[in-house]
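Q: Hi! First time doing this. I have a protein sequence and I read that you can turn it into a structure. Is that right? Here it is:
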Amino acid sequence: MALAIVLQMEIGNYQTFVPLAWLVLAAVIAIGIAQIWRTRLTITASTVTFGRILASNAITVSWADVRGLTQRGHTFTIDTRGYGRLTIMCLVQAKQLRQVLATHGLVIDQKG
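A: Yes, that's right. Below is the predicted 3D structure, encoded as structure tokens:
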């Protein structure tokens, strides 16, 4: 977004409309929306998968590798052996996520 602002100010002299700057801004916003839309948490009987915008960047952790879970409001932090702490934010269905994780035997330490 900073690049779009700099392009608009330097090329457009604060007054002229610069289409390139607006295209850069639109691309940045589209990439941000795609990252949010493609981020998924998939829970199966044996694994939990943190999906990312690129399928090759997905993190899959077996339940045996999960050491603990902490919840603070809508933020869940899953402590794993191989990847350390993985933090996710669940804005809509935090109670349902907590129930699903509890069915896999995780004791949820609630803070705040």
